[in-house]
Design a protein that fits this description.
Elements lengths: L4 E7 L2 E9 L3 E5 L13 H4 L4 E5 L8 E2 L8 H15 L5 E6 L1 H12 L4 E7 L10 H18 L1 H14 L23 H25 L6 H6 L4 E6 L8 H11 L3 E4 L5 H4 L1 H13 L1
Parallel strand pairs: 3-4, 3-6, 6-7, 7-8, 8-9
Antiparallel strand pairs: 1-2, 2-4, 2-5
InterPro entries: AB_hydrolase, AB_hydrolase_1, AB_hydrolase_fold
Pfam families: Abhydrolase_1 (PF00561)
GO molecular function: triacylglycerol lipase activity
Length: 287
């Protein structure tokens, strides 16, 4: 595959770093977590055989810089960033969109706010926990994570967060400090993978302090999603059943009567099972 075309786009309060590869109708991939556009490295080239694939670093992460590094973040502004990329790269035609995790939340808002720009959306485990009947428990988890971040630092806060996601709910008490989700150092990483891991680690404080509390307190417009359900695919990882990121998508799929698509792997299946993930995503986008 040829190297992607790299660009920068000025938006309100930030400069977005994006990459484009392939040809055909536009497919925008919206990343979640702290990985940025690099989280799609395993599937972007595969998808570029059929689509013009656009990836980008969300504002404040990796190559996308904020004018004010201390600015508060919100879902609507992140969705507007995605809209600006769609307008730049596909000004005359609606695009297909895939969003994972917090990127799935961005994508859901984009769909409800600008449905004319989206032909089809696949949202993979968007943690919109406010739709759940036990939402107060998850608010308590987020508050504990923030308290731990302020009092004990990044890695204890990440352990608290990861344990809460694995449990699927707030059991209180146990902080999950022995969680198997703690980052594990690799003995030897290829240069590209090592650089990606370094960027992810650099993004973690911003992700945990600014993105997590804002995005996980977001409530989607369910009535609007129901109106647009014919272009929405809700998806989860087949190995993440019972975990917190799985539950909101499953809840919405039942509420909207859309069915729930299961991708290989868990919450990070696009990284752990890239070939199978890309194959299923291609089918979901065409259905």
């Amino acid at each position: 595959m040829t190297d992607p075309t790299i660009g920068n786009l000025r938006v309100n309060g930030a400069t977005l770093h994006y990459a484009v590869r392939g040809q055909g109708p536009l497919l925008l991939l919206i990343p979640g977590g702290a990985g940025g556009a690099a989280s799609f490295d395993g599937i972007a080239d595969d998808l570029a055989a059929e689509y013009t694939v656009a990836t980008y670093d969300p504002r404040g992460m990796s190559g996308s810089t904020l004018d004010d590094p201390g600015a508060e973040q919100n879902v609507a502004e992140h969705a507007d960033d995605a809209l600006r990329i769609l307008e730049l790269l596909s000004p005359d035609e609606p695009a297909k969109v895939f969003g994972s995790s917090s990127g799935g939340i961005t994508a859901l808002h984009l769909l409800t706010a600008h449905p004319e720009r989206i032909e089809r959306l696949v949202a993979h485990e968007p943690p919109v926990v406010e739709v759940l009947p036990d939402a107060p428990e998850h608010r308590a988890l987020i508050a504990r994570v923030q308290e731990t971040l302020r009092g004990q630092g990044l890695m204890p806060a990440m352990a608290e967060f990861a344990a809460g996601l694995k449990r699927g709910g707030d059991t209180g008490g146990d902080t999950g400090s022995d969680t198997t989700s703690d980052p594990k150092p690799e003995i030897s990483l290829p240069p590209q993978a090592a650089a990606r891991a370094e960027r992810t680690m650099a993004n973690l404080p911003y992700f945990l302090e600014r993105i997590v509390p804002s995005f996980m307190s977001y409530t989607p417009d369910i009535d609007r999603l129901e109106e647009l359900s014919n272009r929405l695919v809700l998806a989860c990882g087949q190995d993440s059943h019972g975990e917190l990121p799985y539950r909101p998508a499953a809840f919405l799929a039942e509420r909207l009567n859309t069915g729930l698509l299961h991708f290989p792997g868990g919450h990070t299946g696009l990284t752990t099972h890239p070939a199978e993930f890309a194959k299923l995503l291609r089918k979901a986008l065409q259905a």
